[in-house]
Write a structure and sequence with these properties.
By secondary structure, this protein is mainly alpha-helical. It contains 18 helices and four strands. The chain has helices at 3-25, 32-47, 54-62, 68-92, 121-124, 130-136, 149-157, 163-177, 180-191, 211-221, 223-232, 243-266, 273-295, 303-306, 315-331, 339-346, 354-378, 389-401; strands spanning 103-104, 110-111, 114-117, 144-147.
Amino acid sequence: MFTRPAKQSKAATIASFKISHILAKHKKPFEDGSVVKEAFIEAGETLFGDFKNKIEIMSAIRELQLSHPTVTRRIEVMSQDIADKLKHDIMECTYFSLQFDESTDMTDTAQLLCITTDGAPAMTGNKNGFVELCRANEEFPSFFSFHCIINQQVLCSKVLNTEEIMGIATKIVNSISARSLKRRLIQLQLEDRESAEHTDLVLHTDVRWLSCGKFLQRFQELLLEITAFLDKRGDDTQILKNEKWLTDLAFLTDITMHLNIVNLELQGKGKTIIEMISAVNAFKSKLQLMIDQLKRKDLKHFPSLKARIPQFNYDTYEDELSNILGQFEMRFYDCSKLENIASFMSYSFSCKNIEELATEIASHIENRWRVVEEAHEKLTDNKTKTRKGRKYYEGMDEIFKGDRDIVPEAL
């Protein structure tokens, strides 16, 4: 008796899920479900006008539940179902297969030289991380592991003590930009200047790598106008006139802009590992140079700091630069293994230990060639001195499986 209404209700629910899935797949607003239903009804009146069961068809269409909250719930249910199935499948898996870009040697045998990770614990954990598990497996070829070079550079900059400066500067800028009247007033004030290069403030967000440097640079450039604007409104500007705070702001502005420059050098398509290592090493040398210059009170690389009243003690800033340099040395330690090769390939005539480097490379090639000759002898018919067809190549591949962990010591 109640079988048919129950089937119709189930069919309407399934149809509601399918339409919600289409809306989500095409990234349409959830409230468009009501529009779809309205269009469905209007079309149905015309399409099914001559059908004997038109009333039943239109009734089924009107029972479709496609309101905004309903579509939202449908999509949430489907999303949770996908997540639950994925978790279940992962828990049931014993092994996972990974796909790597393949690099082959002179015998067309695949070699694995480097694995680049995103720094997540699952990848870089000391015991159960992917990299350590690969290293612990004797059958796994030797390799170098690298964390994303650009991300590493950003992490190095995190050691800067920016909390006090950024906290106050961000609070001031947000207090102005959050209120439309204040923002319009300061924009008018900035536009009335003789050199109106900038007519608005810049907001800061942690998720953007270059945001800190750009934010501080704009704040430093408009500092006088911001102070005058706040004074006119009767706000407390004592901190903006404190020489120590202003000097710290100037130093932080300069060093974050240097960090932004090296970050931009590391970005872009087609960058090779050699170019990126060169950029990192150049910046490390630049950091050491800036430390030495600060000791001599030379502010050539700190234009904002140079514009302030000269300070007789820059020990704090030297420590900050030393901390950044230490982070670069620690985080890019693996890159040092490639420095000799990278230096030789980039500037062949600048290599001081060319004989030693050539010996290392030649030794590696000789070792590899010896393995090739031994494998060739084993798989060649001694009587006819001919290769044994397909077995020869299969045998060569089998032998090289145990030889894929040979990586040049020069690296």
